[in-house]
Design brief:
Number of helices: 2
Helix content: 10-25%
Order of helices and strands: EEEEHHE
Number of strands: 5
Number of domains: 1
Strand content: 25-35%
Distance between the termini: 10 Å
Largest sheet: 5 strands, antiparallel
Shape: globular
Strand order of the largest sheet: 1-2-3-4-5
Radius of gyration: 14 Å
Amino acid sequence: MSEITKDDYALVENDGSFYAEFYGVKFTTGKYKNIVVVYGKVKVLEDEINDQAKLSFTYAIQDPADYDIEELEKDEDFGEHMGDILTHFIAESLENQEAQIGTIESPIDIDPESFTQ
């Protein structure tokens, strides 16, 4: 996992597109700067054999910046980066007591891609 800080991403409101009711996450530094993704379902998968947990999530690329979406979807480093950002966001939310754990039903399901880290 790379060293992520809150300066590496920003929550952004989406325009009138399909994702308008969801916040996007804009990457603000590094190789993937200016890419905006919308995270969907997030799960923690336990690996009892190795006594570890993996983060599994769905996502949609709303703005690929200067990249090709298909290339990003195949890029393992990009997937790792998305996971690192999401992990940091969750940890910060829990630390600041801003997180809500539970089920929130959404009228749409964003699931064009899935990734497990």
